[in-house]
Design a protein that fits this description.
8 helices, alpha+beta, Rossmann fold
């Protein structure tokens, strides 16, 4: 494999970069060379219509960056979404700013700092997913209400001493890049509980679980969907591979979730 110069002339090569992508994001990542110092990032993450996000790793002026080459915003235009409208534009601009992206006439790029390729790719895909989710702007308030209900339900049924919201690995993830909605201590391995509100949240949680698996610590995963029927089949299929127990919604499964948490995990039966 051709050796590439990274920022300061180090000998990190494309194989190393690909392995870092796999370690930090998921093991399905591949790099496909397309010209000089340009690689198509092959990954499993998609829009809800099944099209993959376009992600390109390329060297521009001696610096490496990730780019969608304008594809994300172009894809949204197919949905008849006017991104110049206040609410939509605000979400895009805020996401670009929050994740450190650059928007150059519709092309979204992310410079890769300090050879942190894997971390950069994870953040970049998160940003693309969040931007593509503007089509659901009218549902944001409803999602917020669901997460409030999700949190309230767990507070009601899990003792405070056993639960911790927004948990992150204190040694391996001090910046909380891979957070858990709620970690529950059990007699055996801990239980990670997630609230799933959308395709984007489902994909993000899938990636988070992949990362936690690589830390070598035992755990179980449970998910409560706002409405499982709204999750696209390919995305749900990938999530099912890494989730131990799912509930299709909260309102119709309160008793089952309570029993599952208290008996199967909290009490270790």
């Amino acid at each position: 494999m051709t050796v590439c110069s990274i920022f300061d002339g180090s000998d990190m090569n494309i194989t190393d970069i690909e392995q870092d992508f796999q370690k930090k994001v998921c093991d399905k990542i591949r790099l496909l060379p397309e010209g000089l110092s340009r690689y198509l990032v092959i990954h499993p993450f998609t829009f809800d219509d099944g099209d993959h996000y376009i992600v390109v790793l390329k060297n521009v002026g001696g610096e490496w960056q990730l780019s969608d080459e304008g594809h994300t915003i172009m894809h949204l235009s197919y949905e008849d979404i006017n991104l110049s409208r206040g609410g939509y534009r605000e979400i895009v601009d805020n996401t670009v700013s929050a994740f450190g992206l650059v928007n150059c006439e519709g092309e979204l790029t992310l410079p890769i700092p300090e050879m942190r390729f894997g971390d950069a790719l994870f953040s970049y895909i998160q940003a693309l997913v969040k931007i593509s989710d503007v089509k659901y702007l009218e549902r944001e308030r409803v999602r917020s209400l669901f997460m409030d209900e999700f949190r309230g339900f767990l507070i009601e049924h899990i003792p405070e001493s056993r639960r911790k919201f927004d948990y992150y690995h204190p040694q391996h993830d001090p910046k909380s890049v891979y957070p858990i909605d709620c970690r529950v201590e059990t007699r055996n391995s801990p239980l990670f509980i997630f609230g799933i509100t959308s395709d984007s949240k489902c994909q993000t949680v899938t990636t988070i679980i992949y990362w936690w698996e690589r830390q070598g610590e035992a755990f179980k995963v449970m998910a409560i969907h706002e409405n499982q029927e709204e999750i696209s089949r390919p995305i749900l299929a990938r999530f099912t591979d890494v989730c131990d127990k799912q509930f299709s919604s909260l309102p119709t499964n309160r008793a089952r979730i309570k029993t599952f948490v208290e008996e199967s995990f909290v009490h270790g039966t």
